[in-house]
């Protein structure tokens, strides 16, 4: 059972996820790229209640870890710290921002599969990448609300089930898309990316259900 969520990345995405997790009742440990003291003030102001730590301490103390760093910086995270851990990949490859990263432009796999190759011993799950960080906080709804949106999840079944409960508590209906390669269906450029869908609509977009 997840009680503490670790977040690597204290920027806009990481901070929005931290606030959402705190609101959902989770303990939150968060790290930037350096010592905890470097982000302590901004954490106190932007994500009150979260605990600033080093990345290594976040990985060591959380029940699951959220990767919320710019794609061009994911190599800055020591893969050894995530060995055996469930890690949520929220990242997207944006060439205008990340530059021409050969490992993505020259690889036909989804970005999460490329990232998973780096974090070879982690249990990587892709989700939270196709919703805007600002929408994460404003669109959350209680279970059963007709306006509740769905969020797609891709990864191994066991890890995805753990993440699905987190997504549910965040205020969204989790929709299991399949193994990690299925994450390509909700990357930038897909009909799902950046849109708002109910779980039923999302299932149709993912080819998991027939349109009515």
Describe the protein's architecture and organization:
With 212 residues, the chain is an alpha/beta fold. It has nine helices and eight strands. It has helices at residues 12-23, 40-46, 55-61, 95-98, 102-105, 111-118, 133-138, 157-170, 199-205, and strands spanning 4-8, 27-31, 51-52, 64-67, 86-89, 123-126, 150-154, 173-178. A six-stranded parallel β-sheet has the order 3-2-1-4-5-6, sandwiched between helices. A two-stranded parallel sheet has the order 7-8. The longest helix has 14 residues, at 157-170. The model has no long low-confidence stretch (mean pLDDT 95).
Features:
212 residues, alpha/beta, six-stranded parallel beta sheet, two-stranded parallel ribbon, 9 helices, 33% helix, 17% strand
Q: What is the secondary structure topology, with strand pairs?
A:
Layout: E1 4-8, H1 12-23, E2 27-31, H2 40-46, E3 51-52, H3 55-61, E4 64-67, E5 86-89, H4 95-98, H5 102-105, H6 111-118, E6 123-126, H7 133-138, E7 150-154, H8 157-170, E8 173-178, H9 199-205
Parallel strand pairs: 1-2, 1-4, 2-3, 4-5, 5-6, 7-8
């Amino acid at each position: 059972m997840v009680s503490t969520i670790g977040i690597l990345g204290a920027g806009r995405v990481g901070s929005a996820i931290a606030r959402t997790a705190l609101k959902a009742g989770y303990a939150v440990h968060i790290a930037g790229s350096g010592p905890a003291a470097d982000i302590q003030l901004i954490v106190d102001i932007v994500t009150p209640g979260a605990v600033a730590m080093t990345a290594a301490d976040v990985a060591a103390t959380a029940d699951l870890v959220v990767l919320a760093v710019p794609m061009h910086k994911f190599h800055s995270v020591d893969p050894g710290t995530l060995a055996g851990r469930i890690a949520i990949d929220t990242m997207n490859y944006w060439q205008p921002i990340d530059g021409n990263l050969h490992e993505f432009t020259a690889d036909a796999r989804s970005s999460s599969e490329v990232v998973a190759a780096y974090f070879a011993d982690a249990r990587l799950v892709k989700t939270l990448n196709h919703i805007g960080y600002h929408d994460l906080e404003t669109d959350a709804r209680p279970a059963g609300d007709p306006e509740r949106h769905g969020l797609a999840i891709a990864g191994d079944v066991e890890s995805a089930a753990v993440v699905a409960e987190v997504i549910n508590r965040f205020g969204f209906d989790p929709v299991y898309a399949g193994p990690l390669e299925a994450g390509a269906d909700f990357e930038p450029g897909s009909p799902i990316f950046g849109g708002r869908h109910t779980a039923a609509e999302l299932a149709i977009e993912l080819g998991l259900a027939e349109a009515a």
